[in-house]
Design goal:
The chain is an alpha+beta fold and 382 residues long. The chain folds into 2 domains: 238 residues, 3-Layer(aba) Sandwich (Rossmann fold); 125 residues, Beta Barrel (OB fold (Dihydrolipoamide Acetyltransferase, E2P)), CATH 2.40.50.100. The radius of gyration is 25 Å and the shape is globular.
Length: 382
């Protein structure tokens, strides 16, 4: 085959390419307050141009880690590198970083243009350059028509855009966002998520965002790190973390999950046979590593992977359990079903509402069979 006829190699993402250096490198960083470990020996690599999210509940250490990258906090131990430079002891104003706060922190006595220009004036840039950069930043966030207004004359979404323009106008190498959409209502937040992603892709600046909102992190991120009690418990793309959670904590924190516990009966090729006492059922779960018979095991099963039928004559190799519909939550596009099995265990299933409510699915107290394929369950680590 001629060289020109060879198929092109698939493009690697930066984190898959051993030849690409990370843009942000966190090495063994710890931050303590007395005996409390806010961040505990965290190491992480983030690549140029990523929209990376730190996801976790309140108190998990994500904001502390972000503030250390900004220079507002100093690590008790470990090192921080940005673009190959050790910035561990560098003050905030000397780092190639800007930060967008949850409160937006706009100056109430200044109009929009002066708020955005504030940092450039502190650097004593020429007036014309300041005007040009402010105009470009406001045009980028679609706020060029509001330059003369004060913050109290703007909506929450408009204030958020001004804060973003102020953060971007200094052209940082790295932009840190601390719960940037937390003050917006649900509809505006969903709209702004895509706007932020589009702006980030257009500029190519590396974004690191802190959020407790799983949906927000999954919508906006190229990759994300899930944090718990000062530790990073899993790093990956949103799809990988959702589909293959490493631990029970991640399975239950990122989205909804049925976590089924049982004991290993044996293995057959790439299938694990499990007896689940709470369901009084034998399950088949796809798993590529052998486990000892009798070993305890937990399996994550997402509600949307669970199908529901009134039939009982399902083909072999399909997991099935019988139960009765106990609760139904109608959410418009989907309905959530809680099915009580014979042993009393509730299993959650999610069905798409393809038909109008005049043609509903299963109803309360109806006997149903829940079923799913072996590949739809995930074995969780301890």
């Amino acid at each position: 085959m001629a060289l020109a006829d060879r198929p092109a190699r698939p493009r690697l993402d930066p984190w898959q390419d051993v030849n690409v250096e990370p843009f942000v490198r966190i090495e063994g960083v710890t931050r303590t307050y007395g005996d409390v470990y806010a961040v505990d020996n965290v190491s992480l690599e983030i690549y140029r141009g990523e929209f990376f999210s730190l996801l976790g509940s309140s108190g998990c250490g994500k904001t502390t880690l972000l503030r250390m990258l900004a220079g507002f906090e100093q690590p008790t131990d470990g090192k921080l590198f940005i673009d190959g430079v050790d910035v561990t002891g560098v003050p905030p104003y000397e780092r190639p970083v800007n930060m967008m706060f949850q409160s937006y922190a706009l100056f109430p006595h200044m109009n929009v243009e002066k708020n955005v220009a504030f940092g450039l004036k502190q650097e004593r840039l020429p007036r014309q350059e300041i005007r040009d950069r402010v105009a470009a930043a406001l045009d980028l966030v679609k706020m060029d028509a509001y330059g003369r207004r004060k913050p109290d004359q703007l909506s929450g979404g408009q204030q958020q855009r001004v804060a973003l323009a102020r953060a971007l106008v200094k052209r940082p190498k790295l932009l840190l966002l601390d719960e940037p959409l937390g003050a917006l209502d649900k509809k505006l937040r969903e709209h702004t998520q895509f706007e932020l992603v589009n702006i980030q892709e257009k500029l190519g600046i590396t974004f690191i965002m802190v959020t407790h909102d799983q949906e927000e992190a999954m919508t906006m991120s190229t990759r994300m790190a899930v944090m718990n009690e000062g530790l990073i418990v899993q790093v990956g793309t949103p799809a990988y973390i959702y589909e293959y959670p490493a631990t029970r904590f991640i399975a239950e924190f990122v989205g909804a999950a049925n976590v089924l516990e049982g004991r290993v009966l044996g293995t057959e090729d790439d299938l694990l046979r499990i007896y689940c006492e709470e369901l009084n059922a034998e399950l088949l779960i796809q798993h590529n590593r052998p486990m000892e018979p009798g070993a305890p095991v937990a399996v994550s099963l997402r509600p949307e992977k669970v199908l529901m039928t009134e039939r009982t004559d399902l083909e072999p190799g399909v997991n099935r359990i019988h139960g009765t519909v106990a609760e139904i939550g109608y959410l418009g596009d989907i309905s959530i079903y809680h099915v009580r099995t014979a042993g009393g265990r509730m299993v959650q299933a999610q069905l798409t509402n393809r038909n109008r409510v005049e043609n509903p699915g299963p109803t309360w107290d109806q006997a149903v069979t829940l079923h799913w394929m072996p590949a739809n369950g995930v074995v969780l680590e301890a």
